[in-house]
Amino acid sequence: MIKNTVVFLLLALFVSCKQPMETLVEDKIHSAWIYDFEGVSNEMLVNKIISSQLNTAFISISPAYLNSTGHLEYQNKVVDFLTLAESNQIKVYLLICEQPSYTLKENHYLALEEVYRVIQFFNNKPHVVFEGIQLDIEPHALDQWKDADDFNDGVREELLKQWLQLHRDVKDRLIGTGYSYSTVITWWYDSKFRDGVLPSGDTALLKDIVDFIAVMAFSDVKDAYKQAEDECNIMKTVVGYNKYIYTNSSELEEQKSKTANAFLTNPNYLGDVFFKLTDY
Questions:
Q1: What DSSP string runs through 207-262?
Q2: SS3 letters across 22-85
Q3: Residue 62 in contact with residue 117, Cβ under 8 Å?
């Protein structure tokens, strides 16, 4: 009897010790970037999110349609999707400002206008729930960036300075809204900073601006967690994958598992997001 009791107590202790680790994994973001909002019904979108075992969606929307009387159907679709997502315990972030040209100082007003439209649209809809906004500007896609030189002309550094300033301005615009604020970056911004060629690529500069970052750890050479290691050691991070790099879904899931294990005890690791959700 005593022996059985000891065994039972040891098993109970083992289970109680394991529980926090399992909870840590289950609490993570499992998500996708979604770009087919207009062309797919809300029901199909939500069903695909659920069947893909995701608990979060970063969904691309068109803020310009939110305050236009000519796009009432689109506005209703946004509201209905968010309502349906909430009823299925799916967290939603609105992906906006998807224009590399917004990097440029003279175009910042266009990005701020998108943010303003989102805020205004939802001001009178307190019953509609979403987590926040995510910017996806990607200055490295600009021709000016591509034509520049890392070491001599300073063009890339100046572009990234302007990009950072826009993020500060968006933060100011969001004060009092309660919305989460995040942005998409590529892993090699910080890598170039560490190489001494891109000072404004320092991930630490974003730490006091956004709530978290989504790092495009896209590589067919290295494991994704190695690409996101520096960022995750600095601030709250969602690790992003490009599913088209991998030959099948099993390879993608293997990469996610490697990342989850590598950052198991890192409180900055928030979870994963992949590009992109398709096949509805």
A1: TTT-SEEEEE---SSS-HHHHSHHHHTTS-EEEEEEGGGSSSHHHHHHHHHHHHHH
A2: HHHHHCCEEEEEECCCCCCCHHHHHHHHHHCCCCEEEEECCHHHCCCHHHHHHHHHHHHHHHHH
A3: no
Percent of the chain with pLDDT over 70: 91
d(CA 106, CA 234): 31
Tokens 């601030």 label which residue?
Answer: 235
Q: What is the pTM of this model?
A: 0.90
The contacts of residue 104 (CB under 8 Å, 6+ apart) are 142, 159, 162
Per-residue pLDDT for 47 more than 70?
Answer: yes
Mean pLDDT of the chain: 91
Residue with the larger pLDDT of the pair 93 and 26: 93
**Core vs surface per residue 197-230: b (16+ CB within 10 A) or e:** ebebbbbebbeebbbbbbbbbbbeeeebbebbbb
CA 107 from centroid of its chain's CA atoms? 23
155-174 and 108-123 helices, crossing angle to 10°: 20
Q: Rounded to whole angstroms, how far apart are CA atoms 59 and 81?
A: 10
CATH of domain 30-275: 3.20.20.80
What does the pLDDT read at residue 12? 44
Structure confidence at residue 11 (pLDDT):
41
pLDDT at 25 (0 to 100): 53
Domains of the chain, by residue range, sit at 30-275
What pLDDT is attached to residue 7?
42
Q: Is the pLDDT score of 38 beyond 60? A: yes
* DSSP helix/strand/coil, 91: strand
